[in-house]
Every structure is written in structure tokens, then in C-alpha cells.
């Protein structure tokens, strides 16, 4: 059997693509190892009709809806290898071999939070990375913002809309200009370039931050900037071009420059995105992929 499309990655982009292709009566293999980036998060926000849903519940509902379409199959497997073949692609996943005419990559990202003791226990509970996703829940609370790159200034300005009690920390690095420090200070935002020694909290709730010099400050929530890395390891083998941060280069419709391969969501951009944005990208890529299949069938 050869599928019309193999979708690698079962996050919002992959699931929405599977939904659209299923409704188009395409034979789809959805390959996903159930290791979502947002698994540590207690609730996902910003998605109409699903605001506040847990990531696991979102995936459960989505998988249930997608697999109602008889041409869509969900394979809970890790992809081990992908090869180009004359009729499309050969995918080795677990002990199965999947053949597909087209390939849609929606594998998302891996995130690594700064190596600060105590942070992992709080991450996804009272310390987050996305203000649009979790800023509302931390509104008006004393917050700390930790980033080791130039994005710290932007993040500080953004969070000022959610809380005016901010401590901005570059964790021992010099990433802010004097002008930026002055601008933040003029808004009563505290700037620290000290290295963070430890995050302390209880039951997932941040209570205190200690710096390397022994000083401490009480905080009840915060935001950090993780390191992002692509989950897709076959780009070079498949001849895919990537951008400066590892995203697979594709056009506005998700079509890459490698024949038969599409990419959507974070796999395409290389940067984190909200559920609703990734889902929309999956829908667009699915329509583009279906159109390509249709044109090929009518050219025979």
C-alpha cells in the first residue's frame, strides 16, 4: 500500500493537516511518537473553543476527530529513517515501513531551558516562555525575566503590559545597551546582569530567586528564553534547505524546494508558535499538498 501522504509529527500542525486531508479523502499516515514540546504545560491558551485545555486533552480530542475519517491512520511510532524512492518516500518507523507519495513535516521543536538549579521543577507551572500563552495568568504579579540574548529587551517591554513589577536578568551576560537599560529604568523596571544561582519554590510555584553573589529577591512567577532546536534530523539527507535557526525553508503554502516535501508549523519557521498558528499552517500546507496531488493525477 502507498499512502497519498505521510505526516511526520502529531502536534497541532500535523493534526490539522491530517484533518483536512482526511476530509479530502486522501490516504494519510500520521506518524507521531507522542513527545510534544508543551507536555510540561498545565494549560494551553489562545485557541478559540479550547482556551485553557491541557496539551494531553487537546491531542486526545484532535486524534479522535482526525481518525473518524477512514482514510487517516495514526501510527504512534518514532521515525527512524526516510528515503526517497521512485514513487515518493519510504519511511521506517518502529518495526513498520510506510510508503507515501508526499511527505509533510510537522515535527516542531525541542526546547532546552537555561541550566539554572530549580528551574525545571517550576517550568510550565509558574515560569514560562511565552507571554501571549501565559502572561494573563501571571498578571500583576512580581515577575523575573531571564534571557541570555538580545531578545531580553523586547521581552521586557512586552511583559510590562502584564505586570509593572519586573526584574530583568541577563544571567551574567551583557546583552543590553546603556540606552536600553536607561529606557527600562525610566519605567521602574529593575535590570540585573548577575548570574542566577537558583530558582526556589514549592509545589511548582516560584517563591525566590538567588543570585551568584548571595543576594535574593522574592518573585512568584517568571519568564525565560529557552534554546530551540529542530526535531527533524533528516533535512540534509532529503536535500532540504534550512534557515538560520534550523527551520525548513518553504513557500507561503508550505511547499519546500525538494519535490514532494512540505513543511508546516514550527518545523517550517524554526521558532515557537501558538497552537492556533501552527494548526492554521497545517491546514494551508494540506490544501497545497492536496492540490499538487490533484494536478498530478489529472496530468496522467
TrEMBL record:
Keyword Oxidoreductase: yes
Signal peptide: none
Keywords for the protein's UniProt record, in alphabetical order: Flavoprotein, Oxidoreductase
Molecular function GO terms recorded: oxidoreductase activity
Ranges of residues in domain FAD/NAD(P)-binding: 3-282
Cofactor(s) needed: FAD
Subunit composition and interactions: Homodimer.
Protein name from the UniProt record: Thioredoxin reductase
Organism annotation: Paenibacillus prosopidis
Lineage: Bacteria, Bacillati, Bacillota, Bacilli, Bacillales
Amino acid at each position: 500500500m502507498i499512502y497519498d501522504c505521510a505526516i511526520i509529527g502529531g502536534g497541532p500542525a500535523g493534526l490539522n493537516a491530517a484533518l483536512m486531508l482526511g476530509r479530502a479523502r486522501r490516504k494519510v499516515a500520521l506518524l507521531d511518537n507522542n513527545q510534544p514540546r508543551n507536555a510540561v504545560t498545565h494549560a494551553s491558551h489562545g485557541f478559540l473553543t479550547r482556551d485553557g485545555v491541557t496539551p494531553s486533552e487537546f491531542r486526545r480530542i484532535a486524534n479522535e476527530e482526525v481518525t473518524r475519517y477512514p482514510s487517516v491512520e495514526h501510527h504512534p511510532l518514532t521515525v527512524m529513517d526516510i528515503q526517497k524512492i521512485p514513487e515518493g518516500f519510504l519511511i521506517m518507523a518502529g518495526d513498520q515501513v510506510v510508503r507515501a507519495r508526499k511527505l509533510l513535516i510537522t515535527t516542531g521543536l525541542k526546547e532546552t531551558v537555561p541550566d539554572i538549579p530549580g528551574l525545571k521543577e517550576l517550568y510550565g507551572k509558574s515560569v514560562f516562555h511565552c507571554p501571549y500563552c501565559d502572561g494573563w495568568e501571571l498578571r500583576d504579579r512580581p515577575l523575573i525575566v531571564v534571557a541570555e540574548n538580545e531578545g531580553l529587551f523586547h521581552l521586557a517591554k512586552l511583559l510590562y503590559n502584564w505586570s509593572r513589577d519586573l526584574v530583568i536578568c541577563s544571567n551574567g551576560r551583557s546583552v543590553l545597551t546603556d540606552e536600553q537599560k536607561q529606557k527600562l529604568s525610566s519605567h521602574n523596571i529593575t535590570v540585573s546582569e548577575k548570574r542566577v544561582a537558583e530558582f526556589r519554590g514549592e509545589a511548582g510555584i516560584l517563591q525566590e530567586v538567588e543570585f551568584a553573589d548571595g543576594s535574593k529577591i522574592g518573585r512568584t512567577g517568571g519568564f525565560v528564553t529557552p534554546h530551540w532546536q529542530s526535531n527533524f534530523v533528516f533535512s540534509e539527507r532529503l536535500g532540504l534547505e534550512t534557515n538560520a535557526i534550523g527551520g525548513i525553508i518553504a513557500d507561503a503554502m508550505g511547499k519546500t524546494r525538494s519535490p514532494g516535501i512540505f513543511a508546516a508549523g514550527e518545523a517550517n519557521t524554526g521558532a515557537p508558535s501558538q497552537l492556533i498558528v501552527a494548526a492554521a499552517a497545517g491546514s494551508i500546507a494540506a490544501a497545497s499538498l492536496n492540490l499538487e496531488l490533484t494536478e498530478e493525477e489529472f496530468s496522467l
